[in-house]
Amino acid sequence: MRISSAVESLRLSLPIMRTPQKDIICFKNGVYELKTQTFRPHNKKDWLLVSNDIDYYPAKENESFETHAPNFAKWLKRASGNQDKAKNILAGLYMILANRYDWQLFLEVTGAGGSGKSVFAEIATMLSGKNNTVIGTMESLEKARDRALVVGYSLIILPDQPRYMGSGAGLKAITGGDEVAIDPKHKQPYSCKIPAVVLVINNEAMRFNEHNGGISRRRVIFHFGKVIPEKERDLNLVSKIEQELPSIVRLLLNEFANPNEAKERLHKQQQSEEATTIKRESDHLVDFCSYFDALNNPNGMLIGNLGITPFNPRKYLYHAYIEYIRNTGLNNPLSLTQFGTSLSYAMNKDGKQYIKKRYTAGNKTNLELNLNASKDWLPKAEEPT
Q1: Contact call for residues 342 and 335 (beta carbons, < 8 A)
Q2: HSE-CB of 26 using CA atoms within 13 angstroms
Q3: Which residues contact 264 (CB under 8 A, 6 or more apart)?
Q4: CA 253, chain centre distance (Å)
Q5: What pLDDT is recorded for position 13?
Q6: Within the chain, where are the H helices?
Q7: End-to-end Cα, the chain, rounded Å
Q8: What is the mean pLDDT of residues 338-342?
Q9: Which of 26, 27, 122, 145 could bond 56 through an S-S bridge, CB–CB 3.0 to 4.6 Å?
Q10: Does domain 100-229+259-281 sit in CATH 2.40.128?
Q11: How far is CA 374 from CA 115, 139, 268, 310, 378, in A?
């Protein structure tokens, strides 16, 4: 028999490889079904390729994180610093576990090295399943050819991103549930939705140059601010947490028996003080707006333009913005048009409402410069030359 004939015979006898089952977590001794929250033996029709090599064990009496997942609980306590943030972190992990891409949110974890960010990513991979997790970059989400690499996965991790500044168009489209172009090698291009949760791990928060709220309303920032001293770090922490995975899965599902509670927690995290601080640091317009008080009516500063003389940053909002840019060491200020269209978004991010009304003297706003708060940069403009 010729070799080619033998190969053809094998092709006829082998079943076609199917897509791996997604809503299950593969353990060494079986699989855990997330929908039914039950454990069952392996089935070849699941088409799984990767196991976490851990034996699943049944629920124990009075199961809790502190008692039955002590290593996870220790990490969570250190990473969060308080009970409220700990609940929000659990909500983020639940979102990954349940693959709630339909919430149209993405997680961004920032902090210095040794603060627990990489452990978060490892736990996320355990919960999603190694078979369902892919590593990418912000740039890979922007290009049709590179996006082909993330199709078919339920968790996209963007680890250790270099300093990013851009529109985040690919990230916005994927998390928004839009169809995106896919251009796989040696195959016909097509478009599809990518039903995946996106997790970004950064030392420094990403900087986006779009100011219409498309990114901001999807972005959930967790800042891990406490660096664990070298002598206190447990090099085996991830493997210890992995052994606690059966309990962690059950406890997360019990914690958020009502999934909307997890979603509300994530929205709460978006408005947290730490998230607001990070947004101010990563978006100069949000920071600029923090120096203003919002009045109930548009009786505050005029918007103005650079054609108005004399230059008066106490009277004209755009003059104040230009002076802020000059005296904080920034470059490339927004044009007057960009500034005007972005103000509502930026004020909203600072928790204030922006109102504008046209008068004979020009467009007047409800914003008043807080002279005490702005003294770090405004006086430099007031000093005589």
Answers
A1: no
A2: 19
A3: none
A4: 21
A5: 62
A6: 3-13, 65-68, 70-80, 83-97, 117-128, 138-142, 144-147, 169-175, 237-243, 245-255, 259-270, 273-282, 284-289, 317-327, 336-349, 379-382
A7: 95
A8: 90
A9: 27
A10: no
A11: 32, 37, 28, 20, 6
Query: By three-state DSSP, how is residue 45 classified?
Result: helix
- Among 248, 257, 240, smallest CA distance to 66 is for 248
pLDDT over 70, % of the chain? 92
Burial code (b: 16+ CB inside 10 Å, e: under 16) for 240-258 equals ebbebbbbbbbbbbebbee
Give the model's confidence band at 8: pLDDT under 50 very low, under 70 low, under 90 confident, else very high.
low
CATH class of 283-382: mainly alpha
Q: Mind listing the pLDDT tens digit for each residue in 248-287?
A: 999 999 999 899 999 999 999 998 999 888 888 888 898 9
Biggest distance spanned by C-alpha atoms of the chain? 97
pLDDT of residue 384: 43
Mean pLDDT of all residues in 82-105:
96
Give the chain's radius of gyration (CA, Å): 26
Query: What are phi and psi for residue 228, nearest 5 degrees?
Result: -75, 125
3-state secondary structure of 107: strand
* Contact between residue 37 and residue 253 where contact means Cβ atoms under 8 Å apart: yes
User: In a 3-state reduction of DSSP, which class is residue 37?
Assistant: coil
What are the sequence ranges of the domains in the chain? 100-229+259-281, 283-382
Place of tokens 């999934």: 259
* Residue in the structure block whose two tokens are 């904080």: 328
Lowest mean pLDDT among 33-47, 177-191, 192-206, 262-276: 33-47
> pLDDT of 285-313, one tens digit each?
989 999 999 999 999 999 999 999 999 99
The dihedral over CA atoms of 306, 312, 313, 317, expressed in degrees to the nearest 10, equals: -50
Residue 381 has pLDDT above 60, yes or no: no
Question: How many other CB atoms sit within 10 Å of the CB of residue 227?
Answer: 13
